[in-house]
Task: inverse folding
């Protein structure tokens, strides 16, 4: 007999059995794209995606672009749940105009990304990559690094993740500067300053802003030149916030001492992959492939929240607090 349950498409990677079981217990049929568990859904061809979305009411999406054309072609698709907190790949305006709901998994990976940010700061400052490579090659000489303790750290943006980074930095007795358009201060241990001052005074600059037309390449050649000589840059937010070519030049000149990078412009432009890989190969760069939010714990939280969002919208209930970013139902 045909399965008459409402269908939910899941294309995000590493969607666990617990979240799938929740959807099934709520009365939904879970449809997958047939990708390997760790594959990114942005590689799904348009024609394949169109077939997958036929008859689907909810879509739990990872890195795939959700365009106006996709939404218009599938009027039965009522809710798009992004497993993550960034939604720059989803045309939220189109979703709102077409009566759809877009959700994120607010709070799922804040702690994981904050932990990863500190890990990158420490790895770059202590030159872990260089010391590990030397020792593996039989060279027991030490490349002296620098402490995080007592440093001035500048946070660009002050959302949930950056706030978590600030709390962790208090244990390192850091002076924390924040440049953010929306800052609900005063915050103990944090000083709100203009971006120009943050760049000029920080030993470590960590980027936590959303990617918009206004923030794209906010860290460009001029911003890098304005940073303190010998400072390091950390980016666990979005690749487009940093001009990777300008960063490569600043590292080559020695003005920037190192970088910790979890995101790259190449994620949205395959032509830039050689640049990203060249950056990752530098001895003073510690890089990961958008892995900051992919701890086992964060993935499980995000999968369940995304499933809860889809189930709530399709049943006419309220999604978890803070998760709705576009609502066209009214």
Result:
């Amino acid at each position: 007999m045909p399965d008459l349950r409402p269908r939910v498409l899941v294309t995000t990677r590493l969607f666990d059995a617990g979240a799938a079981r929740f959807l099934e217990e709520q009365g939904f049929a879970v449809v997958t794209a047939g990708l390997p568990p760790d594959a990114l859904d942005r590689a799904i061809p348009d024609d394949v995606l169109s077939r997958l979305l036929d008859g689907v009411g909810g879509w739990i999406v990872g890195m795939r672009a959700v365009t106006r054309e996709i939404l218009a072609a599938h009027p039965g698709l009522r809710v798009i749940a992004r497993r993550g907190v960034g939604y720059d790949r989803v045309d939220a305006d189109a979703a709102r105009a077409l009566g759809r709901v877009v959700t994120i998994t607010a709070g799922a990976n804040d702690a994981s990304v904050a932990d990863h940010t500190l890990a990158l700061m420490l790895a770059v400052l202590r030159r872990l990559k260089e010391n590990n490579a030397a020792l593996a090659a039989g060279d027991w000489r030490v490349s002296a690094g620098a402490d995080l303790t007592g440093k001035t750290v500048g946070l660009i943006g002050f959302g949930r993740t950056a706030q978590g980074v600030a709390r962790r930095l208090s244990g390192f007795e850091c002076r924390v500067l924040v440049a953010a358009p929306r800052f609900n201060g005063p915050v103990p241990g944090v000083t709100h300053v203009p971006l120009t001052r943050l760049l000029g005074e920080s030993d470590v600059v960590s980027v936590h802003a959303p990617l918009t037309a206004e923030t794209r390449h906010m860290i460009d050649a001029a911003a890098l030149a304005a940073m303190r000589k010998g400072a390091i840059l950390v980016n666990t937010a979005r690749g487009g916030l940093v001009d990777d070519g300008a960063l490569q030049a600043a590292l080559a000149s020695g003005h920037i001492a190192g970088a910790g990078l979890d995101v790259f412009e190449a994620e949205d432009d395959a032509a830039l992959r050689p640049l990203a890989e060249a950056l990752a190969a530098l001895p003073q760069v510690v890089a990961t492939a958008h892995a900051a939010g992919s701890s086992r714990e964060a993935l499980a939280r995000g999968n369940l929240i995304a499933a809860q969002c889809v189930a709530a919208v399709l049943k006419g209930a309220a999604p978890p607090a803070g998760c709705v970013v576009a609502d066209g139902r009214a």
